[in-house]
Amino acid sequence: GLEKAKSLTNTEWAGILEHAAEAGFPKNSTFLGCKGSRPNTRGYTCGLWILFHTMLTSCYNASPGSVGVLRAIHGYVDSFFTCSYCRDHFLSMAERMKLLEIKEDKTAVLAFWEAHNQVNHRLSAVTHDPYFPKIQFPPRSLCAQCAEDSGQFDTEQVFT
Prior knowledge:
Blueprint: H1 10-22, H2 44-58, H3 65-80, H4 84-97, H5 105-124, H6 155-159
Helix pairs in contact: 2-3, 2-5, 3-5
């Protein structure tokens, strides 16, 4: 079965996808969670951030652990992310933040949150989707106790 396979052929992968479609995965559906107000905004990178945050938090104190997930994310971006500008920025930030030296799951989750906020801050100066501005997360409307009046985040509150 799939759980024992170390690799798949294209034909095997196509069969798995066909089976998933027959099992109820929607065909020709539109994912709205990362749909921007214009075709060239949000989309793929937004979906990746959501996927990466979900993976990190889902594996917190569970196998393979958020540290392992963070390393896998770094490897994915380094090896497969096709936007070289984005990849280079991410890898430089990862080195500056010493992401690959992190040893604890909680630190991995919070470091990735901080990294995403750094990216949002950098991109907020560039024109992006006016309906979805690049903001620091979480905003006060979602977590009033997560930031002080000065704007400094309380990481314990953010983590919970």
